Amino acid sequence: MTALIEVGSVSKQFGSIRAVDSVSFTVNRGEVLGFLGPNGAGKSTTMRIITGFLTPTSGSASVCGYDLAEEGIAARARLGYLPEGSPLYGEMTALEFLRFTASVRGLSTSKVAERIKWVVGQLGLGPVLAQPIETLSKGFKRRVGLAQSVLHDPDVLILDEPTDGLDPNQKHEVRGLIRTMSAHKAIIISTHLLEEVDAVCTRAMVINHGKVIVDCTPDELASMSRYRNAVTVCASTSSGGDLRVTLEGLAGVSSVEHVPKATVSNRFIAFPKDGKSIVGEVTRHLQEKGWEIEELEVDGGRLDEVFRDLTTTGSAKKPLH
Ligand SMILES: Nc1ncnc2c1ncn2[C@@H]1O[C@H](COP(=O)(O)OP(=O)(O)OP(=O)(O)O)[C@@H](O)[C@H]1O
Ligand SMILES: [Mg+2]
Hints:
Mean pLDDT: 92
Order of helices and strands: EEEHEEHEHHHEHEHEEHEHEEHEH
Low-confidence stretches: none
Bound molecules: adenosine-5'-triphosphate, magnesium ion
CATH topology of the largest domain: Rossmann fold
CATH superfamily of the largest domain: P-loop containing nucleotide triphosphate hydrolases
Largest sheet: 6 strands, mixed
Distance between the termini: 23 Å
Helix content: 25-40%
Number of helices: 11
CATH class of the largest domain: Alpha Beta
Radius of gyration: 24 Å
CATH architecture of the largest domain: 3-Layer(aba) Sandwich
């Protein structure tokens, strides 16, 4: 595999604030790396360094083999960048801005129309092309920003909260677009939407206080949750017996909690020992009792809980392999 992005021991100091602290990683073609982390963790600063908008205090970054400090122009020609917010030229119409971007990016005349048509179609920009950017809604400004970042079909994409402000339909479209483009590119996105990690990322990196604290697949991240392989069950025990006591008695179960729901009272969640699968054991025992299972759901793990643990107490479990 080819590493298109290489970050080596990068740190960035702003006065007394260490925004990025000895961060190292590589991203290969075909990967979508998700940056997760609380506000102020250092995600945008790391992205600005990779895109050449900020110089690191120490360390180095390269794109497609070109060092940002030494061959910045060559590196920046190969990347597309969607910064935070909407730092666009407000007085230009969306179309003027895309034409301007195409000329800055050096697209050949024959390519300009084709590429603009493509991004306009992908991002649903048709209705607003003639409108000055400053008069666009937040979501449409974001879409224009995304359009400029992919217009020249770069090998590397750095997208800072790409779906921020988009309506649910556009979020879905943009995630689809990122997935489609990912086969041939190396992509980094930052997000506060944990479902986005599952939807588009092949890899997730949790950053806190400028440091990388976890770098793994989304599934490994979910496996750190105490809910991993937990089973929520609701069963009719009319033939006699106690669902909670039965679940607590199973060899693979570590603990059981009541899960209230407006319409049913007999609903519990059974947590496994060591995150191992218990659904087989649970089902078998309920069937042996002759109880009718009304609901049975296996949890994949809850990313919000893992995120909270990692970035507040640091107490999430280690990934299971
Ligand atoms: N130009 C700057 N001057 C001084 N401090 C800065 C500057 N840019 C960023 N910082 C500080 O660096 C730290 C990291 O900020 P950064 O914008 O990278 O966080 P982030 O992870 O992107 O947060 P968010 O989720 O809110 O976007 C913060 O403490 C921020 O205040
Ligand atoms: Mg940010």
